[in-house]
């Protein structure tokens, strides 16, 4: 019986209508008629289209790529920095390619965290080097730009910022502002994001997945500082 079923399938149209009981029990291979290729209607099966998987590339950064953010006298040579080109999930619910510059010793940390964020579809507004804003931190923040390396002093201090070492990153700075102890932010467009916890796209709250993802690679969140809060800021080892 199993043979009959097989034969009726492989014979196709030629034996259509023949009932199993009238099939001739001859092995298909011995009948030349069976060697005739059976016409097959090819209907392309639409492949499920989904976003591409996360990808990241780490490359050396040339002096030309940092015309404003790096200068002689910075605490880290540009030769010790790396350009990380990676996929991020946008506020428009689509994948995008962004660029970050970080110290070469922390590229694995950054790739590990951003792969998690992408897989969780955690949204980021945009990600360009701060040089797109002539290394002006205020303008980059006002544009809600996520960026890392910038050879500058810490806010309100004469010491180098962790950003000057390529060991800090600011994420969605409009939704996650730098807030003074009295509750102020320098950015008008960030006023409604000064409280925590709050709901909102790209907002970082205490205990969030993004905070945990950074903590797992040893990066601390500025939202846990006492007094002044820097909700956009993560840095290797804190500070
Ligand atoms: Zn920062």
TrEMBL record:
Residues 45-54 have a biased composition (Pro residues). It comes from the Bacteria. Residues 155-235 form the Peptidase M15C domain. InterPro entries: Peptidase_M15C, Zn_M74/Hedgehog-like. GO terms for molecular function: peptidase activity. Coiled coil: none annotated. It holds the Pfam family Peptidase_M15_4. This is M15 family peptidase. Residues 14-56 are annotated as: Disordered. It comes from Nonomuraea diastatica.
């Amino acid at each position: 019986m199993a043979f009959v079923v097989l034969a009726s399938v492989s014979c196709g149209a030629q034996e259509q209508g023949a009932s199993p009981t009238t099939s001739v029990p001859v092995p298909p291979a011995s009948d030349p008629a069976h060697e005739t290729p059976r016409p097959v209607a090819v209907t392309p099966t639409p492949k499920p289209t989904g976003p591409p998987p996360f990808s990241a590339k780490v490359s050396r950064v040339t002096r030309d790529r940092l015309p404003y953010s790096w200068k002689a006298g910075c605490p880290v040579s540009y030769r010790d920095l790396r350009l990380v080109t990676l996929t991020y999930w946008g506020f428009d619910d689509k994948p995008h390619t962004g660029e970050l510059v970080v110290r070469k010793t922390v590229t694995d940390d950054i790739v590990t965290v951003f792969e998690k964020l992408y897989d969780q579809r955690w949204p980021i507004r945009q990600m360009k080097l701060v040089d797109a804003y002539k290394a002006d931190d205020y303008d980059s923040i006002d544009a809600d730009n996520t960026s890392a390396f910038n050879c500058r002093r810490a806010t309100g201090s004469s010491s180098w910022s962790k950003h000057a070492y390529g060991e800090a990153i600011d994420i969605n700075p409009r939704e996650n502002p730098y807030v003074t102890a009295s509750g102020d932010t320098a950015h008008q467009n960030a006023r409604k994001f000064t409280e925590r916890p709050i709901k909102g796209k790209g907002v970082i709250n205490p205990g969030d997945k993004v905070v945990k993802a950074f903590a797992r690679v040893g990066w601390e969140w500025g939202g846990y500082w006492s007094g002044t809060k820097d909700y956009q800021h993560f840095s290797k080892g804190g500070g």
